[in-house]
TrEMBL record:
Residues annotated as transmembrane: none
Cross-referenced SUPFAM superfamilies: Homeodomain-like (SSF46689), Methylated DNA-protein cysteine methyltransferase domain (SSF53155), Methylated DNA-protein cysteine methyltransferase, C-terminal domain (SSF46767)
Protein's name according to its UniProt entry: methylated-DNA--[protein]-cysteine S-methyltransferase
The keyword Transferase is assigned to this record: yes
Catalysed reactions, as listed in the record: a 6-O-methyl-2'-deoxyguanosine in DNA + L-cysteinyl-[protein] = S-methyl-L-cysteinyl-[protein] + a 2'-deoxyguanosine in DNA; a 4-O-methyl-thymidine in DNA + L-cysteinyl-[protein] = a thymidine in DNA + S-methyl-L-cysteinyl-[protein]
Biological source species: Alkalicaulis satelles
Domain of life: Bacteria
Annotated NCBIfam families: ogt
Amino acid sequence: MNPITSPAPLDERARDYPRITAALDFLHENWRDQPDLAAAAKAAGLSPAHFQRVFTRWTGASPKRYVQALTHASARKLLVDGASVLDAALETGLSGPSRLHDVFIAEEAVTPGEAKAGGAGLALRWGCAPTPFGTGVFLIAPRGLSALAFAGADGEDAALADLAARFPGAAFHREDGLARQWAERIFDARAGEAALPLALYGTPWRRQVWRALLRIPPGCTVSYGDIARTVCSQRASRAVGAAVGANPVSWLIPCHRVLAGDGRLTGYHWGLERKRAMLAYEAARR
């Protein structure tokens, strides 16, 4: 079973292609003006309501969400290159830092300042707790879970060092009690299916791939090529593989559900035995 499907059937996307390309051209040329739905719909020659349906069906994202992603990607590059938060906001067509703050929180659950710092000065709490798959190592940011790893034969400290390398300059404080609370929220069936807050630090491309992973239902598997077709093109399978491998939140962002094109288990950061166990655990609960 392949649960990842195209935003619309091929015949519908082929029919919509001319109008979608006109709309994409318009959005890429004018996103700094933060165009509204009516302006984008006019470029496509459709009514706003019809355009909203067609664009979302073809791309898998609303026009507003698409413009927000373009804004975020550009602002993030400006911040990394040294721009101030105010300059990045104004350069990307936003009214000020508060609007840029909203965009960054929506896209990656971090503020523009935190993204610019790359973890420097960020206070992270970490701890270890038992899970169905061995000792879990949890990294918690102020706005949610930033990482979930598993301790291997080389122990908890090695697992933490692996995670800490992703956040140079951050301060780490150990709280095993907090880690146990997160473990219970994640793995205790009585906790229900409520969404858990994640604070992800990564490039726009990686987060796009991680969002695709979240759409794979429990008990199902897909290939790297399936993910690549969802987010870009099948020719991007190698880049998708790198983004999947960089996933910092095991289990919740289910990179264990991605297999090789021939169905083999490959490339799991925390060990193929654990990946096999996770798939069996989910299959038994379908």
